[in-house]
Amino acid sequence: MTVNFALLSKVVLALVVVGSLISVSVIDQSDSDKQKFTCGTDGRHFTPMEQLMRGLFPFDEPANPEEWKDRAICGNWYEGASAAHTFTDKPVYRPGDMMFIRSVYLDSTYLRAATSSQDGNWFWGGDSIDFVVENVDTENKICEGKAEVTANSVAYAQCEIPQGTTGGLYTIKVNSWSFPMSERTVEIRDYVRPELNVSVDLDKQTLVAGDSVKVTVAAKKMNGATIHGAKVTLQLMIDGAEDRRYTGTINSSNLSEFLVTLPTPILSSASVAARVEASGVYEVESKTLPVVLDTIKVKYYPEGGSLLAGVENHVYFESFVTFDQPAEWKAQVVGRPAEVYAFLADAEQSSQVPVVDEVIASHEGRGVFKFTPKVGMIYSLQFTVPSGVVSQGTDMPMASNLNAWMLHAEYDLDTDNIEIKYATFEQQNIVLYLKRGGDLKFAEKTLTSSGATAQSVSFDNISSQVPTGGVITITMYHKTDDRLLPLAERLVFVQPSKVIKTAIETDQPTYEPGTTVRGSVRTYYVNENSQEVNVSSRVSVTVTDESSRISVDSRRLPPNLPTSVLLEDEIVRDMRDSDSYLNGFYTGEKVNVSEYGSKIDLLLGVQGWRRFIFWDFGQTARKTYADNDKVLRKINRVLKQRYDQDDIYFDDFAEAIPLMDQVAEGAPEPQVVVGMPEPDFDVQNGVADAAQPNFSFKVVDADYVETYAHELRENYNPSERIDFTETLYWNAGALTDAEGRYNFEFKMNDSITTFAVIADAFTNDGFFGAALSTFTSDASFYVDMRVPSSVTVGDKLSIPVTVTNNKDKEMEVTLLLQNT
Question: How many angstroms separate the CA atoms of 152 and 762, rounded?
Fold first, then answer.
């Protein structure tokens, strides 16, 4: 069946949800037979929204309209299409701050700089990019503007956050040709710059009422100085009320430990708040306790999409407790016969038969186990640690005998091959495709029928075919004469064959306010002879107050450039704990991040089948198009002018959005949804209940700077402490010299704190580096005064004032409080 624009008005979508397998059928209403939606023998298959997006502006213009129409439907996208990766200088801002934004443009297939013209790739230099900063909930825009992609393959902008901006989460959206390319979420709130760096850690990630947990409070001054003997008060809150208090002091290791016993019962929530007081100032750090109220939510992701009876299956999972916090636990997999299969001879007679002795949920509540399911059995989890809890949604989809399925795929770093286990039960033409970046098909094999047993096939020398590494998509197809029917899919991670080492150096470890900081970044790699080889690369450097980074949950810090490029694009939800996946690899540790059961493997294992096409389709479509009738007009105009197609309009596709919203991951029973519900919003006019902006758009593109270096204020007086600017240096991207070095210089502000130096690098041939270093600021004598960010008339203030003397002699001083 060939689908063209003339038929689109008669086409509806049907979603088939089986376990965590989601497939799409296209039903031509003029034909009663359901046709599987496929796209040519190149293996690309997209949703209608993706088809139109990828086909609307083809880079290599087809010779005739018919070819263009097929490209629009089947999504034949040229190799070398660019992807944007957006970053900011900080994760959290105050009203009045300047936000520095940069987007890195890379060839999505080979990961090279997008402005490179080698091999005929598209040259993005000079192309116009749109930036918008808007509230996640209200969509109120606080900044918007345009920028151009530079020869260094970056676009950059600044947003001066208006005073009075409502606190909350804000999204930076980067668009090209009005199509979305990248997003990054930051927080805006009126926080007070901390004087102490306080953190709270637990020795358990899943608790129940009556449990005991060790709570460790770590504290020191923001400039790294110890506060040995500082008083610590730990408050335990249960169901919104104080339950008890514990007291202690900070030891010589900057820690204070408490053994906290939870009461019974706990009805809704539990948390601890640590108050650390030193030299008249204090900080409070809170942490929600991951208490299981009697339920652990578990989602299963059988590796092939469904369970296949009679052969070994690998099942990935992720789990959550209260407030969607990840859970850590141990359990058994047990089976029971389904009632309708009770008559089968191979059905187990016991109601709860253990088939896997121990399943462990670890990082971010994820894990994997393997077992051989039987027809007629229902399998679920039985928790052993913690005790006394039940599971929610832990029945797995029932196993079945399918014609063909991919059972397991794994990359072996030592042998540099990908081994795939599969099973086919009928003689049919089955092929496996391996792709990188969605577009580059670098390997394929035709499989033979295996009967009822599993067989293996190996793809060798992977790193020589995809030296830049990253996520490899393995897809199993049923191949007919001219079509590919996708059956199963798996993502595996291949380590890059080369790491760009990123060495950060500053001329001193500690600086005084007002002095000059001189630093450099050197990029190199280590060859097979263990020699350092300098390499020219494009680098970015940010120097910012560490207080802004510790003001947000470390699990929610944004990923660095390598993690964003190699992992984030393949993830359907916001990535949590992004530092844990690749940072060790890029700091020189001998780690196998591709290993089965590793953090990356578990992350990729729970993304769901055809994850990057169907997930949150409706939400994406709404955000992108619902409030942008300019885009709709543009698309319709192009269709009319270029190809004389005025009988199809883009808003026909919007009819699928409410249907896509109904896709439920891991649905226990197969569902077929046929027919089109009415759209629940007006595509031409946007979301009906969208709030109106509080601010007029602030366009600052005339003032964009590619490099910002902090300078001393006019009439600088070293005895004054009034400049607490958090970001002291930022550059969007610059080319290193022939020795791989980039130098930077700036002036210190008045803060006594720790500063983070964050650098990343990428080369023309698609390799990456990243590093983080710190330095401190201190003074021989200074005064700190802690004042609230806002007060109300009539308030009574208690303002702590700290005088610090680091000189080698005592001093007698007079404090004078003045209005300014």
Answer: 10
Q: 792: which residues sit within 8 A by CB, 6+ positions away?
A: none
Find the helix or strand (DSSP H, E) in which 52 lies: helix 48-56
Q: Using DSSP, state whether 707 is helix, strand or coil.
A: strand
Rounded alpha-carbon distances, angstroms, from residue 809 to 512, 720, 752, 782, 814: 19, 22, 21, 14, 17
Distance CA(265)–CA(208), nearest Å, equals: 9
The two structure tokens encoding residue 785:
């005064």
pTM: 0.77
Q: Between vectors from CA 615 to CA 556 and to CA 406, what angle results, nearest 5°? A: 105
Measured CA distances, 695 to 139, 165, 344, 692 (Å): 11, 8, 68, 9
Across 745-780, b (16+ Cβ under 10 Å) vs e yields ebbbbbbbbbbbbbbbbbbbbbbbbbbbbebbbbbe
- Number of helices (H), then strands (E), in the chain: 11, 46
Q: What is the DSSP letter of 203?
A: S
Q: How many residues does the chain have?
A: 820
Instruction: Tell me how far apart the alpha carbons of residues 477 and 405 are, in angstroms, rounded to a whole number.
Output: 10
| Cα–Cα distance, 10 to 14 (Å, whole number) | 13
DSSP one-letter string for 323-358: GG-B--EEEEEEEEE-GGGTTSTTS-SSSSEEEEEE
Does residue 282 contact residue 275 with C-beta atoms inside 8 Å? yes
User: Measuring CA to CA, how many Å separate 149 from each of 53, 185, 431, 686, 703?
Assistant: 21, 21, 40, 30, 16
| Three-state secondary structure readout of 746-789 | EECCCCCCEEEEEEEEECCCCCEEEEEEEEEECCCEEEEECCCC
The DSSP code sequence of 368-400 is: EEEE---TTEEEEEEEEESSS-EEES-PPPPPB
Cis peptide before 263 (omega within 30 of 0): no
Average pLDDT over residues 46-50: 37
- The CA-atom distances, in angstroms, between 517 and each of 214, 503, 630, 728, 755 are 41, 16, 48, 10, 11
| Displacement of CA 496 from its chain's centroid (Å) | 20
Q: Which helix (H) or strand (E) covers residue 740, if one does?
A: none
Which element (helix H / strand E) includes 404? strand 404-412
- Residues 6 or more apart in contact with residue 82 via CB below 8 angstroms: 105, 106, 107, 108, 114, 122, 124, 181
Peptide bond into 386 cis (omega under 30): yes
Find the mean pLDDT for residues 386-398: 75
Identify whether the C-beta of residue 25 lies closer than 8 Å to the C-beta of residue 34.
yes
The DSSP element (H or E) to which 174 belongs, if any, is strand 168-176
Angstrom distances, CA of residue 490 to CA of 334, 364, 406, 740: 26, 20, 8, 38
542-583, pLDDT tens digit by residue?
999 999 999 888 888 999 999 999 998 777 667 889 989 998
pLDDT more than 90, % of the chain: 40
CA distance 699 to 141: 11
Residue given tokens 């196993």 in the structure block? 399
What is d(CA 780, CA 569) in angstroms, rounded to the nearest whole number? 48
